[in-house]
């Protein structure tokens, strides 16, 4: 059996990738106590990650506990804890509470694209396509400050932009909305990616 190197990432480390349920549990436990007592952005982020791993493991009470802990940290990324908790609540079939969290996230004026993506994807996945379109679109506006000048390079060069545009495209398609220029950019990017893959 290979010995663990002193430099191997351990549970709780940023670059640790858990592959088994035991590793996921150890990682979640380590993340849940990381930066304890500091009430800092790093602690909030660690708690959110812990909640996601506990949810994957089916430890829903623990997941909810750490998500709610993250909500109480004022130094966290605005709207991020609310977004992750809302996604969890929708997965648990608690839409009223989830929508309240989404409303709270909006009130905090989020700026990070991940907040918009997480909420948009959660809404899309649970059948709220119209609201999902609004969140994906708001994310693009927040990230770029404009939409009319958005071009293919913006999607190619920035993963957050691509993620938001793709989510918006999917949600709009599910609603049967007429294609707009952002939808056309997503389709063009998909064609380019397919052509690149075929050429390999």
User: Which structural class is indicated by helix and strand composition?
Assistant: mainly alpha
Order of helices and strands: HHHHHHHHHH
Q: Termini, distance in Å?
A: 38 Å
Q: Average pLDDT value?
A: 91
Query: Given the C-alpha coordinates, what overall shape results?
Result: globular
Number of H/I helices: 10
Tell me the fraction of residues in β-strands, as a range.
Answer: under 5%
- Sheet bearing the most strands, described? none
TPR repeats: 44-77
Protein name: Tetratricopeptide repeat protein
InterPro entries: TPR-like_helical_dom_sf, TPR_rpt
Keywords: TPR repeat
Textual characterization of the structure:
The model is unreliable at 1-5 (pLDDT under 50). By secondary structure, the chain is mostly helical. It has a domain at 17-76. The two termini are 38 Å apart. It is built from ten helices and no strands. Helix 7 (129-144) runs antiparallel to helix 9. It has helices at residues 21-33, 41-56, 60-71, 80-91, 95-107, 113-125, 129-144, 152-157, 159-175, 181-199.
Brief overview:
The chain is mostly helical and 200 residues long. It is built from ten helices and no strands.
Strand and helix layout:
Elements: H1 21-33, H2 41-56, H3 60-71, H4 80-91, H5 95-107, H6 113-125, H7 129-144, H8 152-157, H9 159-175, H10 181-199
Helix pairs in contact: 1-2, 2-3, 2-4, 3-4, 4-5, 4-6, 6-7, 6-9, 7-9
Protein name: Tetratricopeptide repeat protein
Organism: Polymorphospora rubra
TPR repeats: 44-77
